[in-house]
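Weekly modeling sync, notes
Attendees: AB, CL, MP (scribe)

Item 1: holo prediction request
CL wants a bound-state model with magnesium ion before deciding which constructs to order. AB pointed out that an apo prediction alone won't tell us much about the pocket. Agreed to run with the ligand included and paste results into these notes for async review.

Input as submitted:
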Amino acid sequence: MPHSPSRRRTPLREFQLIEALHRRYGKTGPNVIRGIGDDAAVVTPVKNHEMVVTTDLLVEGVHFDLKTASFEDIGYKAAVANLSDIAAMGAKPNYLLVSLAIPRSQSASEMQRLYRGLMLACRPYGVELVGGDTSASRHGLFLNIVLIGSVPVGCALTRGGAQAGDLLYLTGTIGDSLAGLRVLSARHGHKQSLPPVKPSTQELTRRHLRPTPRVEMGQALSRQRLATAAIDVSDGLSGDVRHICTQSRVGVEIEVDALPISAALRKFAGMNKQDPIDVALQGGEDYELLFTVAPRSCKKVEQLGRKVDCLVSCIGIIKPVSYGLRIKDQSGVLHPLPMLSYQHFSAAHNLHREKSWSR
Ligand code: ADP
Ligand code: MG
């Protein structure tokens, strides 16, 4: 792109950053023909695979807050958001491109810390940094990631394959990340937050700042053709299950008693007079996989969970579209599933709650 005046102000810094990145992450494997340093990257496609591409834009003040997250944390989580999207497609992540718009107040070492977090999250999967773009910013830090993955031809998991009678599964536990965010906000004295929380909340803040993408699980589900549909829980279960229902043209019945809620979340909710079910339903950024399974494959899915050491819970059943989206409470009473997920463009520009599901 031609350099506009605002970009011309930081040519040396931009050059130094790219040089440093090249030195540190430029040694790539044989599949990267040209990486950082050329006009574009050249990579070898994986034989008999389809390419899976995802991108995410993270904006300071909207997706992260420099008061509650370190640069490593921001990089780490940005990578996880994309790794999780690739995992939800049942694919393997391969190549990473990172674009930054950096305010003048930020130093090169802070940006290097951000990359350290990014690459730390990517390392277990052998993802290689092959390029990006760098600009100055007049209003906060912007971070865009492109992650390229691969999946055997015809094996990609989509949101559109669920059928009535399939069972609905979830990996891990949900709501921890939102609880972690509330702990961090309270700790930093934000308005509209809770009073400071004392006990062992480290597990929750860790789930918020350093979530784990379910890459092995996603790949195994697609390779063994165990899931009929999948999505990652990034906006909250209550909202994300809707995407499967819309795209598969089905309904769903979720069982409150079956929701996997961690002991840490129960403790946090108890101490703060919150309903852990509410937190679990609305909490986003857990990066767990929500997927549907034909009844004949359920045993295999549970075996797989044990094999890869990943908790899997059956939380409901897919219904015909006419059934709608419902949730069964502890006494067996059915309610319409409330919309409780994070919506960027809601009036409050914050956690958008229509009403608590249980009231
Ligand atoms: P161009 O002017 O063609 O956009 P740049 O000078 O921006 O080229 O980039 C030079 C090389 O450095 C390219 O290979 C690009 O992919 C890489 N690069 C630039 N910014 C980043 C970044 N923030 N992270 C990783 N690679 C980057
Ligand atoms: Mg550029």
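Recorded for review: The longest helix spans residues 71-88.
Action items: CL to compare against the apo run; MP to circulate these notes.
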